[in-house]
Structures are given as C-alpha cells and as structure tokens.
Amino acid sequence: MTKTTKELSVIIPAYNMQDYLERCLKSLIPAIDLLDVIVVNDGSTDDTIKIAKQYFKKYPDSITVIDKENGGHGSAVNAGVKIAKGKYLRVLDADDWLSSADLEQYLKVLHTEPADLIVTEYSRDDLKKIENIKLNYFEYEKPFKLNKIQELSPKLQIEFLAIHSITVKTENYRREAELLEKTFYEDQEFVAKAILAADNFVVLPFNIYQYYIGRADQSVSPKKQFKHREDHARVITRLVELYVSCKNAVKKEILAARIKEIYKTHYWIYNYNSESTFKERRECKRFCRTTKKQFSELDGAVSAGFKMRLFIGRIKNKLKGKK
Question: Shortest CA distance to 296 belongs to which of 259, 250, 254?
Fold first, then answer.
C-alpha cells in the first residue's frame, strides 16, 4: 500500500489525559491517512500512554507516540516539532478535538495552499454552551501579506492569531528557537514564533478546533493564573526578547501589539485577585518597571481607568469572600 502524503502534523501534548485523549484521537480518524499525528506523553502517571499506544497499533502509518519525562506543554510541542512530517503543523491539546465535519475538506485545501500561515475559526465549549469564534475579518481564501493584520485592534489580533486558530508551515516554524519548557502560557510564545515564521496568511472558512474549557483545573482559570503568575512573567520576558531581536518592522509591530495586551492581562492577574497581598502587587510593579526598560512601548499600556477598575473589582471580590 502506497503511503499517503501527510498534509498536516498534529502535535498532541498529553499529561494525565486518560479521560479525554480518546475523544481527541477519535476526531482525527475520518482523515487519518492525511495526518501525521504525534502524541507526546509528557510523563503521565495515569493511562494516557496506554490509550496512545492502542491508537498507534491501529494506525501505525499515521500515529507516532513519544513517551518522555515531564517537561511541560512547551517541552511536548518541541519534541513533536522535531519529528513532524506534515507540510503544515498545528497543536491540539489532548482535552480538545478537531471538527470531523470540516477536517477532510480543510486538508484538501492544505494540499494546494501556498500560504505560510493558515487561520481557521474555532469553538469554545464551556459545558453550558458552545460559542463559535468567527474570524471572518478578511476575505476567505484570499492571500494577504502579514501587515494586513495590523488593521485589527490589538485585542482582535490576539483572538485572530491564537494557538486554536493557526496552522503554520512546518519547515518555516522549525527554523525558530524552541519554546520555553516547564512553563505555563507558552502558547503565546508558539503564536509569536508562528508570526516570525510567516510573511503571508490566508483565512479558510472552516471551524476546525474545538476548545474545551470545562475543567476546573485549567491554566486559564483565575486561581490557576494567579498561582502561575511567574510563568506568565517569563513568557512576557521571552516575547520582549523576540521583539528586540526581530529585524522585520511589520512583525515587530504585530508582536508589540500582542505584548501590550498580554502585559495588561499580567497586571490583571495580580491586581484583580482578592487574594493578592501588597507584597505580591509590589512584585508585579517591579516586574513592570524592569520590562519597560527593555520595551518602552509599555508606557501607558495600562491606563489609569483600567487600574481603577481593577482596584474596585478587587475590593468587591474581597467583600464577596467575607459573606
């Protein structure tokens, strides 16, 4: 049997995902012959590796399993990128899945698509409702230079170029440095590197990624964000380093807009949380001062009005906690 060309490498970082991995992998089966699926077991202590190997036995020409010590999400992505065989690549978290309905058509388009960066819609599933994130800011299937993204507001740029929406040319992305390891929120670094690896993009009319946000222990929950605030700071520092070293004016502007928005989120993590202490908020101020020395564009990124809203929100949260 002749091996089919792999249009897309799907890297699946998996740590203790025995309850979700099968759903994730099942969503890929309708188009499995066109996929290079790389499941990276990141030191799981449950049956994640067992499930991954069961699917490898069924589809050995399409699924690869990497079993490694725990190194975090970025470490798992790095391991997958090294062996990716697809024309394009994207990251799929093990508790999420891809839309089987659109997958085959999407892969057919990838076969002839020359763009460096592909943007597709995605959905958020929070158990109560499924929200389709429309990204039709530009004409579908029409190639655009990267500078077109600057027409969007910084907030929309973050939504438009998210780890859930982007597919990047494998050979281009592989030229970029590896992601931070043992660090949360490095998805922002992945997107930044995808931007650096691209000169053009196209938007396709498919809702591909299904983002599940129903788990209480996810890193996007407010408590987890506060717990991992130092990781958030590390990612911002890395993004600033990428900005400083970038020689392309357009990419620098896109990175700058992105950093400002993430910086605002960092300020929110510290200053909205009712459990944050004066010492911790002072820690945030020190980080902000240090970062501004490297990236002066952050001056004014957090407005006085935004600071006041956070202060009022923190007081309200404290009062709620006392009831």
Answer: 259
